[in-house]
Design goal:
Length: about 375
């Protein structure tokens, strides 16, 4: 444990670059301190499984055993990195590891972005304390932005650190743990700076392949059915939100710009219509209310912007995987060649695969907002 912390301490400047980039000193301090606190809270899972005190907590023991089997499966069956990530466990004593702040202008879906040295520009700013996130959101609201603060159960440091298993996503159950571990390890396998669409689509394709294999090998028929029902609901929710994002863009981008008061009234009417359509969708689900938290407080442009379409290239990656006969190491090599191209060139090559992906399952928006919570 001490050896791991010393090694990670040497990487603190890198962590600052990953998490802060062009941020101010206060943000730098909370980012570095917050992640270091997560590392300090982590204990190797092997130690926990041998600890007599931990043995008294049978439910936790079972979850940790299942998580270790998932972690082994990820490297053995999916050829994902074999390292210390998800080999330790930290109970942070809170429901989320970080809280992301999203912001968008009052009459636009163009999300505000913050640039990080190692990953490029992203449409959120993360805080390890909810109070700090809420305070920053309040500052942005004073500047006229719509804002949204969302709890996040997991994040990746792209292999620069040994990311621990966290109580913040262990609580969602074994299939969700598998999904998150596969997705986050895929980011460690390959990541391209300043191209969220490429990165998230690739990781989601690996996640989908991983879940297909893991469910076939480990899940009972009933568990597989529950998972597929969840995916269908997520698909329907994402389609609803995409339709309304298009409607809001049409409102805000109209050539014949209406007075601000009229636009505000039209905005309010659209959000009211969205709530009605969501209520109808819930009825079709038999009353399933898993997405209610998203609608519980005021809807605004920042909430819509937080549901950015990150996964539209997933079908192209799945076609590419099929072309490699689902040989994942070969697939990773092909994707690495794409990653070496400039952004426009790799995007064009992937778009050329999309027509052939018409029969592929439609993979939905990356619901950044508590993805595991509102599934």
């Amino acid at each position: 444990m001490i050896h791991r912390l010393r090694r990670n301490s040497l990487l603190l400047p890198l962590l600052a670059a990953l998490l802060v980039g062009c941020g101010n000193a206060g943000y730098y301090a909370q980012a570095v301190g917050g992640h270091l606190a997560v590392l300090r809270a982590a204990t190797p899972i092997d130690e926990l499984l041998r600890d007599p005190a931990s043995n008294a907590n049978a439910p936790l023991q079972a979850k940790l055993h299942a998580a270790q089997e998932i972690r082994d499966f990820a490297s053995r069956e999916l050829a994902l990195p074999e390292n210390g990530s998800y080999r330790s466990y930290a109970d942070l004593g809170r429901p989320y590891v970080v809280w992301n702040v999203f912001a968008a202008p009052e009459l636009s879906l163009q999300a505000r972005k913050w640039c990080l040295l190692m990953v490029g520009c992203v449409s959120y700013r993360g805080y390890y304390a909810q109070q700090a996130a809420e305070a920053f959101a309040a500052e942005l609201r004073q500047q006229g932005y719509d804002t949204y603060v969302a709890g996040v159960p997991a994040y990746s440091t792209l292999g620069y650190f040994d990311d621990p298993l966290l109580n913040t996503f262990l609580r969602f159950g074994t299939p969700e743990v598998a999904r998150i571990v596969f997705h986050e390890l895929a980011h460690q396998q390959l990541f391209v700076k300043d191209d969220s669409l490429f990165n998230e689509s690739f990781a989601s394709a690996v996640e989908n392949e991983g879940m297909r294999r893991w469910l076939a090998a480990n899940a009972a028929a009933e568990q597989r059915a529950v998972f597929e029902t969840q995916r269908a609901r997520k698909a329907a929710f994402a389609a609803l939100m995409q339709r309304y994002r298009e409607k809001f863009r049409a409102l805000y981008d109209a050539d014949d710009r209406r007075p601000v008061d009229e636009q505000r009234a039209a905005k309010a009417a659209l959000f009211a219509a969205l709530r009605r359509d969501y209520a109808e969708l819930k009825t079709s689900w038999g009353g399933y209310a898993g997405y209610d938290p998203f609608f519980a407080s005021d809807l605004n442009n920042a909430k819509l912007a937080s549901l950015a379409l990150y996964n539209e290239l997933v079908p192209a990656f799945e076609v590419l995987l099929a072309q490699q006969n689902h040989d994942l190491p070969q697939f990773y090599r092909r994707v690495a060649k794409l990653a070496a191209l400039d952004k426009a060139a790799r995007r064009e090559l992937l778009l050329q695969l999309l027509p052939a992906a018409d029969d592929s399952p439609q993979v939905q928006d990356s619901v950044t907002v508590s993805a595991a919570e509102i599934r």
